Amino acid sequence: xxxxxxxxxxxxxxxxxxxxxxxxxxxxxxxxxxxxxxxxxxxxxxxxxxxxxxxxxxxxxxxxxxxxxxxxxxxxxxxxxxxxxxxxxxxxxxxxxxxxxxxxxxxxxxxxxxxxxxxxxxxxxxxxxxxxxxxxxxxxxxxxxxxxxxxxxxxxxxxxxxxxxxxxxxxxxxxxxxxxxxxxxxxxxxxxxxxxxxxxxxxxxxxx
Length: 208
Fold this sequence. Notes:
The protein is an alpha+beta fold. It has helices spanning about 5-15, 30-35, 50-65, 70-80, 90-100, 105-110, 115-125, 190-195, 200-205, and strands at about 130, 135, 145-150, 175, 180-185.
């Protein structure tokens, strides 16, 4: 099996697990277990005197990679929230809602995919319905009341054979194991999202 070392390096640079490689991230083979330091010849040396800009950049990179987004995609989400400064009660929560309610992230949160990268691929291949209609756009924003299900023609595929661990599905998503259907019952919570970054620093980075 070919190992995608580039994704492992992203986690090592961030200094935390971003779960970019699915089940491997939970095993003893995880690069953060074997080499919990930044890649490079001088990796084991402790970095000192990191600038404020450097800290903000690092936080931005963590969250962008956590949700498996491109620089442009992530930047657009943050800038959109910044434009609403003063109009939204909690900017951090507003950003997380946008990111968590992406269809690819919802697929990952339900447990249909072991990583957001896999979830994005599954969505683009047209394996899912939203409210009975096929949606193949990973960035599609789900809302309260939306029902997400596996397309009937895809239900017998091997990738959907494993049972969903319902106790791991976030509380804002209600999963029906019989229908293999999930319903968005409320907005995502900031605390439950367990993000690995400091959002305030990310807003500071884009406000420069």
